[in-house]
Amino acid sequence: MNSPILPKQNRTSLVAKEENAHVIAVPLRGKGNVVRRMFADVDADIYVMVDGDGTYDASSVTKMVEKLVDEHLDMVVGTRQTPEERAGTAYRRGHRFGNRILTQSVAKIFGGEYTDMLSGYRVFTRRYVKSFPALSKGFEIETELSIHALELRMPYGEMMTPYGSRPEGSESKLSTYRDGWRILKTIFRLYVSERPFSFYSICAAFMAAFSVVIAIPVISEYLSTGLVPRFPTMILSASVMISALLSFVCGLILDNVTKGRHEMKRLAYLAIPLHNTGKH
Fold first, then answer.
1. Which member of 15, 139, 142, 148 has the lowest number of beta carbons within 10 Å of its beta carbon?
2. What is the DSSP letter of 4?
């Protein structure tokens, strides 16, 4: 019986099998779910992650792996480079603008010098992969991958790689606004979990400032008359100030918890030997 004819975008697994690749089906939808499964099931010294849409230059992988090994890095990101005449079709303007904003946001919050944080073309060492928790479900996985390297202070690098248009007949599953919003939420979530003292201190500062502002008339009137006629305002001010103190204390406690998590992930990272490539 003849096999059914499938659209080009649905034949990725069939073509991969024809080329003798080992294909693993992941029932959960979303790029993050696929990456989580692959990182868990695949055991190798060096890992290559690339989108299967034909936009990335396959020949760049050799240089990326060589850079990873020669410079003793844990991750190399393929920075997308598109010729000007093909920029509009290969890399939409909205995506470029959003990538720039999100990359700069991560740099401001977590540090680092990424120029293309959302690139889907990456090479990893085994110890990077096996210490990465992979919590994201969709396209926000690249953000989590980038921040993981920054938080554990892993050595990483970037390499320019050509980026072209998708094959005719295929469509991108990436939504500029929906996935951009998800990436923003991921950055905020990681900011709260990885920088709790900073986040809760800012909250405490705003609440303390609000408490002082609304308390000034009450205190002024008390000093003048010895009376507190604005009793509800006084209660509100005291309550907000107490909340500010609680927020500050929560930041201190969660900061220690975060340091403990970082130590555990660092120990898991150090427990895995550097990739065995024959180079020393």
1. 15
2. P
